[in-house]
Amino acid sequence: MMNEFMEAATAIESGPVKKWKADGGRVIGYTCSYAPDEIMHAAGILPYRIRGFGAGEMTIGDTYFGPFICSLPKCMLQLAGEGKYAFLDGAIITPGCDSMRRLDECWRKAGEDHPGVVPRFFFHYGVPHKYTDYTIKWFTDETRRFIAEMSAHFQTAPDEERLRASIKLYNRSRGLLERLDVLRTGDTPPLTGSEALAVVIAGSTMPRELYTDMLEGLIRELEQRTVQYGDRIRLMLVGSANDDVDLVRILEGDRALVVADNLCFGARSQTDLVEEEGDPVSALARRYLRQNECPRMYGDYRRRLAILKEKIESAGVEGVVLQNIRFCDLHGSENGLFERDLEREGIPCMRLEREYGPLVESGRMRMRMDAFLERIDQRRKSA
Amino acid sequence: MRTATREYKFDWMLWSAFNAAAKLKNGSEKEYRYILNYIPYFRGVVDAILATGEPGEKFIGICARYLRNLITARDEGRHNAITTFCFSPAVFYAMDITPICLEVISVMMTFTYRRGTTEFLDYCNEVGYTETSCSSQRGTIGAYLAGIGAEIDMIVTDTPGVCDTNANAFSFASAYLDVPFFQLDMPPVLADARTDEYHREDFRALIRFLEETTGKKLDVDRLRGIMEEVARQDAIVAELEDLARLVPSPLPVAYNLMLYASRFLFAGMKECTDVLEAMLRKGKENASLGISGLSGGKEKLRGFFCYIDHYTQNLKLWHMLDSHGIAYQGNILSRSFASNAPHVKELGLEEAAYGIDTSNLDTMIDSLAQINSRMPMIKSIRGPYDGPHMWLQDTLSLARMCSADFIVYNGTPGCRNTWGMVKLMARDTEKAGIPTYIMYADAFDDRVESWDVTKERFEEFLKVRRLLS
User: Fold this and answer.
1) Which residue from A237, B236, B272, B295 could staple onto A261, CB 3.0 to 4.6 Å apart?
2) CB–CB contact B414 A68 (8 Å)
């Protein structure tokens, strides 16, 4: 079962996507976790989180983006320019951060030079940077604008009943992911951090019904699993977007285990349910605007620190890896604050700046991880 | 950071320098020339600004006044707020809050000190703030993080939705210093009913925040006086923009800097009006004589900067332009988007402009919200660069209106937002027939690329494109 999740997490056009397309299904890609999957699902469209995974070069990305830009959107553009996203019928760009929102223009302009690489439905989805009554209203209206444009383009509208059903389904799978998180953060985790990440990522690339069924099966399997990693050093992974299970594999090596994360591709994006009562669009707007714990929501550091500390406590985390992609100032700077405040409380932290994409720096990362694990080992011995 | 740097409050040091500079012209010309020898690293900027006559003297004077306000705010019973250049200070003045504009202070230090703001830039990195963040905020915020500036009451920004690294600097400082924070958020579209309503709601929330933080109510009469002053200033700026269109332009190159800096420091206050009026008097005088504002008296080219300037020590950018006979036609910072601005009227852009209505408190708050949402950068780089009323449209219309022979982009490597689209925009402006140059320097940090290299590359562009022989 884990192999199927791993396959879905490590291929751009995975088996389930190919089958969906072969059956005549349509796919809308989105660039960040603020886009509500439920709406596309209710319209019978497969929501798919766009990734930069597997880009071997950045010749196309560098042509349109300037040099001081995060490599994640550059890799996304690279893949799009190479035609790897030809299966997308639509794309949503959200202003998760400045680098990501400029994917809008760069992708469109690349389409002028490479005809056919831009999906026909292309939507800029505004997302406020704070959570108040009027920002929720604005985001709700923006979501209705999205529904209207998507419905007009694809000639399929998500009515209220279908929306409620989609919300229910996604809530169910989020509940299962919560169960997975309990297993993962327990005393004897039955899976590695890279496997856990693969399971979450797979959810953003396959039909939700199939995913939910597979998740149920996986949890049953994991509850019986005898492989245990109880003696490894327990780590938490925090920071910039990461959809590369190999990065987690490198960080874990054979001495550590990532038992918790706070990544938008990871557990963070799956916590919290959508209210099933009341107006579904407004419920979705509230959930997506409130529950994503990303530093793009300015001035809310204390709440994010509290969430982190609670997770560190409940998961028995012994050290925190604070990573950011170069030029990701939002996570990079917040990592600086986390390091200050967590170290003050005796929680070892390691800041790691990296590039997104091919793991050309794996040697450096391993060396730094060895030193970090050594530090935690010494703490264990002196405890 | 060197121990010596920590010895004195950085803002007091800077005030001390500008306060002395403001008095330099009190003596005879001989005394003035003699004293310049004692300020070898500051003399270039002082001399260049004072050389513009009355406007320059007034400008140096208001810089000193601003810095004095900043260091005395708390002692004199005022609150202070760290804020950003693209946030109109009018609302702060209306509530007796001293605005501490990070970027303007960074410019002052970059101009004045041989080492620029390097120690403060680096200090930010020492305490965990990324080195890839924008140097315009880092250059000053580092001093506050190090505790060698005035104590801070609040932090207020309006760049979320416009510039991440800017907004992030304020958010970081708020968490680091543990002081109250407020953000005005900007949707990706400028001119539609939904956005207008959002701006209005957001601005009212800001006023509630300011009232709660200071414990004072917004004074309607005081606000009205300030708004009327803003309207007067807009009218003067419109006249200056019109004058700049004359060939030759009667405005000296440094006017552009003085215009936007005065507004960032004192919009809505008499101090700013005084400088603008003096500039207008001189500009009209030159225009009536038909002479160029350039020191050489001959205008060879006209350049438009689509973003910001390069603030290396001693106004070297302005010297370079002046020495080549290039009339500086302004940048994104100096342009006004008031409804009476020449380009707004000429191009029919009223829906994207702001008006000032002082009828009652509600109309004034709505006007403030509109002004703020039309500030430089806030207006035009919030949405896709090729969208309505955004960066490309503004750049092309302004460059054409002022008959620019070329367009220049300069920013900082920290400007994720413009670096994400500047190549595309340069491609479009070139297609429109205007040679466009992208500078890879850092406006606030010569260590990224030395001024000599920056200058050489700039001149190479002028030569290769056969703009100058």
Assistant:
1) A237
2) yes
A56 Cβ contact list (under 8 Å, min separation 6): A358
Write down the ipTM of this complex: 0.96
The residue of chain A with its CA nearest to that of B440 is A67
The reply to whether residue A129 touches residue B185, judged by beta carbons under 8 angstroms, is: yes
CB contact under 8 A, B172 and A105: no
pLDDT for B332 equals 86
Instruction: With a cut of 70, say whether residue A371 has pLDDT above it.
Output: yes
Q: What is the pLDDT of residues A251-261, one digit of tens each?
A: 999 999 999 99
The CA angle B215-B221-B226, to the nearest 5 degrees, is 95
Q: How far is A383 from chain B (nearest CA, A)?
A: 29
CB A8 within 8 A of CB A14: yes
β-bridge pairing A45-49 and B97-101: unpaired
Chain B environment of A329 (Cβ under 8 Å): 130, 132-133, 164-165, 168, 414, 416
- pLDDT, mean of residues A70-82: 97
DSSP string, B195-239: HHHHHHHHHHHHHHHHHHHHS----HHHHHHHHHHHHHHHHHHHH
What is the gyration radius of the CA atoms in chain B, in angstroms?
21
Beta-carbon separation of B416 and A98 below 8 A? yes
What is the rounded CA–CA span in Å between residue B435 and residue B430?
5
With CB atoms and an 8 Å threshold, state whether A124 touches B421.
Answer: no
Q: Which residues of A touch B415 (CB under 8 A)?
A: 68
DSSP per-residue string spanning A63-107? HHS-SSS-HHHHHHHHHHHTTTTTT-SEEEE--SSHHHHTHHHHH
The 10s digit of each residue's pLDDT in B179-210 is 999 999 999 999 999 999 999 999 999 999 99
Residue partners of B305: CB distance under 8 A and separation at least 6: B328, B330, B331, B332, B407, B408, B409, B410
Q: What is the pLDDT of residue B343?
A: 86
What digits encode the pLDDT tens for the residues B301-327?
999 999 999 998 888 999 999 999 999
Spell out which residues of chain B touch residue A289, defining contact as CB-CB under 8 Å: none
Alpha-carbon span B366 to B364, nearest angstrom: 5
Task: Say yes or no for a CB contact (<8 Å) between B187 and A298.
Answer: no
What's the pTM? 0.96
pLDDT classification of A292: cutoffs 50, 70, 90: low
Query: For position B165, what pLDDT does the model report?
Result: 94
Residues 307-336 of A with CB under 8 A from B: 324, 326-327, 329-330, 332-336
- Mean pLDDT (10-residue bins), chain B, 469 residues: 93 95 93 89 88 95 97 97 97 97 96 92 97 97 97 98 96 98 97 95 98 96 97 96 95 94 96 98 97 95 96 90 94 88 88 95 96 95 95 95 96 96 98 98 96 97 94
Is residue A38 less than 8 Å (CB to CB) from chain B? no
Quickly count: other Cβ atoms within 10 Å of residue B77's Cβ. 8
d(CA B339, CA B184): 22
Taking an 8 Å cut-off on Cβ atoms, the answer to whether A68 and B168 are in contact is no
Strand A26-30 versus strand A90-93 pairing type: parallel
What is the pLDDT at residue B21?
A: 93
**Which residue in A334, A166, A350 sits closest to A251, CA to CA?**
A350
Contact residues on chain B for A336, CB-CB shorter than 8 A: 127-130, 172
Overall fold of domain A8-156? Rossmann fold (3.40.50)
User: What pLDDT is stored for residue B330 in this prediction?
Assistant: 87
Contacts of B418 in chain A (CB under 8 A): 66
**Which residue of B127, B202, B419 is in closest CB contact with A336?**
B127
In A, which residues are within 8 Å of B174 by CB distance? 299, 301
The encoded tokens of residue B192 equal 């539609």
A to B CB pairs, distance under 8 Å: 144
Could you tell me how many residues make up chain A?
383
